[in-house]
Design goal:
The complex is a heterotrimer of chains A (256), B (326) and C (320). Helix content of chain B is 73%, strand content 2%. By secondary structure, chain B is mainly alpha-helical. In chain C, strands 1-2 form a two-stranded antiparallel ribbon. Classes of the chains: A alpha/beta (256), B mainly alpha (326), C mainly alpha (320).
Chain lengths: 256, 326, 320
């Protein structure tokens, strides 16, 4: 942690809370993330990981608490504006635009990132800058082979990569990655993770990565947080955290 | 609310522009070969196209059913009836068209705040509700609107102070209609419509990549409304008469039905749909006057069950691609 | 204020409204409530007719408005033919029940032969709204476009004085009848084994789980449509002695039912009843004070609710 302390804080969350009746997926969580800091987040099913990320992106409103981005309060800011300001999230389940080609999926994000929402009369093929950028991203994420395929015909692994590519198109400051490898085969898993980590490093992004595979977590992060029933119960280097008894109990005990 | 079936939106290419050109050429020369009555039918068809295009945009890009085009046609028509009929202020098209455009944009934008709050079924019924509210207001404010008698004796329009003959009005309608078609084709090929399709495809994802969902939905609704508002003016001039029936929800539904007849998987859909509906209406009501509602209702219902939203153009497309495969 | 004429009757029907003399505000307000009773029951039944299908089967269907139309016209014709001016309560109830069965039958037939094959909500909305044209076309051929009336039940039931207000007994009958229907429906849903199956397949339940547990989805949906059709037809029958039946009344039915769902939320019987009171009373008050805005008021209420609580006051957010 020490080397992160000189870097300015990117996101601070203060006593965030979200209850669904009796269920308390996020229970007064405070969190600080510096620029370029990469965290992994682990926890059993239903621990509240997705809910926490959704609170940060604004898809869900907190019952209580405050979120700041670079010192500025953004608790009430809607998700689309947060995305513009650099908080971008990938989805745990498939969330891509099924009826479009891979190229159009990524291109949509590029248009959005460039703020071109309302250019009503300009042909998309004439937007050279955007099309070039889209092409570059497609190449970067190794999607050239399926560039013009309709996303609905592609496999789950591809959809995950497309989701990530769209997030990078937004030029994020912090990337929230919700289980990038869930439902993906062993081989593809490492490919996706490599791509993701390389890009995060290359762009010097901050990131929170939710991941169930503890081997992957150990390999790729310096710092990990364990979440249980809406609270953080341990934080530190993976080796240190996973040697704690309570953590083992929670992660193994709940059939992790 | 929808288990959206996959639907591919075509892109505007050179073929589309050539087709538009051919279509324009046909409607330019056609009046010389047909009777005056047939020409009025043609004119009505031309004027319906922009409104059907509004429905088309909302349907093919956003997957929403827009029953409320009658609101804006009604607004345009009543503005014309007041200005060029009842209060005789002006019959100048260059004043009335911009006025109707501004009014429909403002009304559509404000209404959009409420009725675009939710989509699917709720958007559809709010469209019906708004048009019925307008209907009841116009129907009851007898002293201003003439109630169910409507307003007749609308003066013939003039363009840049030159009075337009019937033929002149036909060509003016043609220019406006083709102009709107060209604009709409451009809109359909813009990044705006790409993002609308993203919203229809996955609203949460669209939001999380920074697309201002609500505002873009409202803008699409406003574009549809503006189209209808403009044609409302010209429809009023074409009939010289306006009655509250322009605000009936069934009239708004007719535009949806036209879009379905034409099909929403091809740009030719709105054009085919508008002419198809009007001719169907004409022939059925001449030959089976009483059965008009039953026949048209069943036709639409059967089209929806069998080919969904593909319509006539979709069937033709499928046939063509089959022939080509062989 | 001294003389208020209450007329909740659509255009073109015979004047059956009546006159109130009242000094006190309370009495005036009570008179509004009493006069709103028919509108309230009308809204309760129609909105639930739509709501029920939406909630239990997750489908959109506008056919109920056409069935409402049929219910109104058939009640008028059958009532005039069999009873004429010789009114008897039991036979009128028998007619209503018969009309309800007819509505249920129509609803099931339309569902089984047609609506079953529609794949998305968008398709369902367009196809069933076109079916409304077919219904009104059939009505036009059979009964023409001039309004028909059958006011014997309304007139023969007499009036009573309640708290200084003169109220036609028929208003209480209509309200009571619809309330009993709703209570029966609530009993069916929450107290019987079959009701459990319905709730299991509803938006609140878990459809796949229900299927695994042996609930026959098709039968449940068919019965759902039957109940919806029955409610719509009886609504038409009950309202006909007050308002008669005229060409185009299905639009009004559709509008009020839909707006009530927007305000009350999907799947709440209590919400539907309360909303019916809000909209019914608001409508009667505007009909007296500002007749121009009679139809605008339900819409304004619905718009306000949409902005403040997009899923309705008593509604939950359902993700499909
Ligand atoms: N909209 C909602 N309404 C009610 N309960 C909810 C809602 N969303 C989430 N929950 C509950 O909150 C808890 C936490 O959910 P969340 O999705 O955040 O868990 P998670 O840690 O991401 O689990 P997983 O590993 O399965 O993705 C769960 O018990 C879930 O049932
Ligand atoms: Mg999760």
């Amino acid at each position: 942690m020490s080397n992160n302390e000189q870097k300015p804080l990117l996101i601070t969350a203060d006593k965030l809370r979200k209850y669904y009746g009796e269920v308390k997926p996020v229970n007064d969580i405070s969190l600080e993330i510096a620029q370029g800091q990469v965290l992994t987040l682990v926890g059993a099913n239903g621990a509240g990981k997705t809910t926490l990320l959704n609170l940060l992106t604004g898809l869900i409103r907190p019952d209580r608490g405050e979120i700041r981005l670079l010192g500025e309060k953004i608790t009430g800011v809607p998700p689309d504006q947060r995305a513009k300001r650099g908080i971008v999230k990938t989805f745990q389940l498939e969330h891509v635009f099924d009826d479009m080609t891979v190229f159009d999926n990524v291109r949509t994000a590029c248009f959005s990132s460039a703020g071109k929402h309302y250019s009503l009369f300009k042909d998309i093929e004439d937007e050279n800058e955007i099309n070039e950028r889209t092409g570059a991203l497609i190449e970067l994420f190794d999607l050239t082979g399926v560039r013009d395929a309709f996303v609905r015909n592609l496999g789950h692994g591809y959809k995950k990569v497309i989701d990530i590519a769209m997030c990078f198109a937004m030029k994020p400051k912090i990337l929230l990655v919700d289980e990038p490898t869930s439902g993906v085969g062993e081989e593809e898993k490492y490919k996706i993770m490599d791509l993701l980590m390389n890009q995060i490093e290359a762009n010097n992004l901050a990131a929170i990565i939710v991941e169930h595979d503890l081997h992957l977590v150990k390999e790729l992060s310096k710092e990990t947080i364990v979440m249980c029933d809406g609270e953080f119960i341990a934080r530190g280097t993976p080796d240190h955290v996973f040697s704690q008894e309570k953590v083992i109990e929670i992660l193994v005990g709940k059939g992790f | 609310m929808n288990t959206a079936l996959s639907m591919t939106v075509p892109s505007v290419g050179r073929r589309t522009w050539i087709t538009t050109l051919i279509f324009t050429a046909i409607v330019v020369v056609l009046p010389f070969f047909i009777s005056g009555y047939q020409r009025t039918l043609l004119q009505k068809g031309l004027l319906w196209i922009p409104s059907v295009f509004g429905v088309y945009i909302l349907y093919s890009l956003l997957r929403q059913v827009h029953f409320g085009q009658s609101i804006f046609i009604g607004l345009g028509s009543y503005i014309t009836a007041f200005m060029a009929g009842k209060y005789s202020v002006t019959n100048e098209l260059m004043i009335l068209l911009p006025l109707a455009l501004v009014v429909s944009i403002v009304v559509a934008y404000v209404l959009g705040i409420f009725i675009m709050k939710r989509t699917g079924f709720y958007f559809a019924v709010m469209g019906i509700a708004v048009t019925m509210v307008f209907w009841s207001l116009v129907y009851k404010a007898r002293t201003i609107t003439g109630g169910s008698d409507g307003i007749s004796h609308i003066k013939n329009p003039s363009l840049f102070t030159v009075p337009l003959s019937d033929m002149g009005l036909y060509y003016f309608c043609l220019i406006v209609s083709v102009g709107i078609i060209v604009l709409m084709l451009r809109v359909l090929n813009s990044s705006f419509s790409l993002q609308l399709r993203a919203i229809a495809g996955d609203l949460e994802k669209a939001e999380s990549i920074g697309i201002p969902v609500k505002r873009m939905q409202r803008l699409a609704f406003t574009i549809a409304g503006a189209n209808a508002g403009i044609t409302g003016v010209l429809l009023a001039f074409s009939y010289n008469y306006v009655s509250p029936s322009v605000f009936e929800w069934g009239y708004g539904a007719n535009f949806v039905q036209s879009a379905i007849i034409g099909g929403v998987t091809s740009f030719a859909g709105p054009v085919v749909g508008a002419f198809g509906f009007i001719n169907l209406e004409f022939f059925i009501s001449t030959w089976f006057a009483n059965l008009w509602e039953i026949i048209i209702g069943l036709t639409i219902a059967i089209i929806v069950v069998t080919v969904g939203e593909k319509g006539v153009t979709g069937i033709v497309q499928t046939l063509f691609s089959k022939i080509r495969c062989k | 204020m001294a003389q208020t004429i209450i007329n909740v009757v659509p255009e073109g029907t015979p004047p059956v409204g009546h006159i109130f003399e009242s000094q006190q505000m309370l009495s005036t307000f009570l008179s509004y409530i009493f006069n709103a009773l028919p509108m309230v029951s009308y809204i309760i039944m129609l909105s639930f007719s739509l709501n029920f299908i939406l909630y239990i089967s997750g489908r959109v269907s506008l056919t109920f408005a056409g069935i409402y139309l049929v219910g109104a016209y058939v009640t008028v014709s059958v009532g005039t033919y069999f009873l004429g001016q010789n009114f008897s309560l039991l036979s009128f109830i028998a007619i209503l029940l018969a009309v309800g069965l007819l509505g249920a039958a129509i609803s099931i037939v339309v569902y089984a032969t047609f609506e079953r094959f529609l794949k998305t909500d968008v398709h369902r909305m367009i196809a069933t709204s076109s079916l409304l044209m077919v219904f009104s076309g059939i009505i036009k051929i059979q009964w023409g476009t001039t309004p028909v009336t059958y006011s014997a039940p309304f007139l023969k039931m007499g009036i009573s004085e309640v708290l200084g207000n003169i109220v036609p007994n028929y208003y209480f009958f209509m309200f009571g009848f619809s309330l009993i229907l709703m209570l029966a429906l609530a009993y069916f849903l929450f107290r019987t084994a079959w009701g459990l199956r319905f709730r299991a397949t509803s938006l609140d339940g878990d459809r796949t789980m229900a299927q695994v547990c042996g609930v026959n989805q098709n039968i449940v949906t068919a019965i759902t449509f039957a109940i919806s059709g029955m409610l719509a037809a009886i609504a038409g029958g009950l309202y006909a002695p007050i308002a008669g039946a005229s060409y185009g009344i299905e639009g009004n039915a559709l509008l009020l039912a839909a707006l009530t769902i927007i305000v009350g939320g999907v799947g709440s019987i209590g919400g539907a009843v309360l909303t019916a009171f809000i909209i019914g009373i608001a409508r009667v008050i505007t009909a007296v004070e500002m007749p121009l805005f009679e139809l605008a008021i339900p819409f304004i209420i619905a718009s306000a609710v949409l902005v403040v609580r997009p899923y309705g006051i008593w509604g939950k957010e359902f993700k499909h």
